[in-house]
Write a structure and sequence with these properties.
2 copies of one chain form a homodimer. With about 190 residues, chain A is an all-alpha fold. Chain A is about 80% helix and about 0% strand. Chain A has a single domain, classed as Orthogonal Bundle (Tetracycline Repressor, domain 2), CATH 1.10.357.10. The first copy, chain A, binds a DNA duplex (18 and 18 nucleotides) through helix 3.
Chain lengths: ~190, ~190
DNA sequence: GTCTATATAATGATAGAC
DNA sequence: GTCTATCATTATATAGAC
């Protein structure tokens, strides 16, 4: 396995900082400090701030697909796989309370900035949507599959947004349970 | 009725721009240009950028309360009032597709900035939550009222976030209908 | 209340030595 | 690949004339 290059450390740091502080609010100086390199060195690896954003989104796409693939192999039944998706809300609840959903908050920010990377960022959502849709198809709900996928994706986004605003742990548990109950009628 | 003062025009512009472009991304110069005043004049009315944010949040609190009061007087039954809330998703669908929910996107941004106005901004959410909770109480669901209020608030947030990312009009209609159906069991 | 001019700090980005 | 030094631009904010 190859040694981790400086470039990877930059993407590591940017990925986290963009999530915790937002894309625009995170300056290159701050990233460089975090990685303990100079700004000049930073520009050797990425020729603009938008280029790291591209790299971060690309990494998130890879990681998301890897997670979906893992769920695909782990859970035996489609409805159990969907539960894996819902349960991220519980697993990541501390981060979500602090920073919201990494996908939803990024797409919202880029929409306001009218940023050219909007489309790529939205692709992360599409990965989830298409994967969820596929599960519903396998459950026999071919016609409604896309709408059901969007529904569950929306529910999880709402939970993340309010958990972030209200810092409410019980709300997350309640909602996750409600989504599980909702899911039963399609299992 | 008093003449509209420059101060009001500044808050008008800031309110819209913070919604459309985000708080941090909206510079004072841009606001000043929009209102057609100088930056110096701007600082005569607001001594810092955070002070306009305060004013904008305050105005949104006032406007939100006024809207809730209006619904309280218009709709005869509590479940019809709740429907008024849900229907904002349809009424404002064009803006929501472009910029998301003004409340959710602001609280998310301020959370990432760790901004001191977070608490005040979240109060807008609380107005909705408490109002919705009151409606469910009047429908006889005293015990669950808060949880039901948070549920419906979360659903609407999820719809706004995904409508913004996917630019999907049909999704909004579908989800609004689903929320109406869900509401029936509590009516 | 409104303006012009300016101060100050930070940002994204580049040049060039090592 | 990494650094220091620097640039141009923009941001928030202030001073002071009218």
């Amino acid at each position: 396995m190859a040694k981790k290059a400086t470039r990877d450390f930059i993407v590591d740091a940017a990925d986290q900082l963009f999530y915790q502080q937002g894309f625009e609010h995170t300056s290159l100086s701050y990233i460089a400090d975090e990685v303990k390199i100079s700004k000049g060195n930073f520009y050797h690896h990425f020729k603009s701030k938008d280029k790291i954003l591209d790299a971060v989104i690309h990494r998130r796409l890879i990681n998301t697909q890897a997670m979906l693939d893992k769920w695909q192999n782990e859970g035996k039944k489609p409805d159990e796989r969907i539960k894996s998706f819902i349960n991220i809300l519980l697993i990541n609840q501390n981060k979500i309370k602090k920073f919201g959903c990494p996908v939803g908050t990024l797409t919202s920010e880029l929409a306001k900035l009218n940023h050219s990377a909007q489309k790529e960022a939205n692709e992360i959502f599409s990965l989830f949507k298409n994967w969820l849709s596929e599960q519903f198809k396998q459950l026999g709900h071919t016609e409604q599959a896309d709408a059901l996928a969007m529904h569950i994706l929306g529910r999880s986004q709402g939970v993340a947004t309010l958990a972030n605003a209200f810092q409410d742990q019980e709300f997350i548990s309640n909602e996750v349970e409600k989504i599980h109950e909702w899911l039963m009628q399609y299992s």
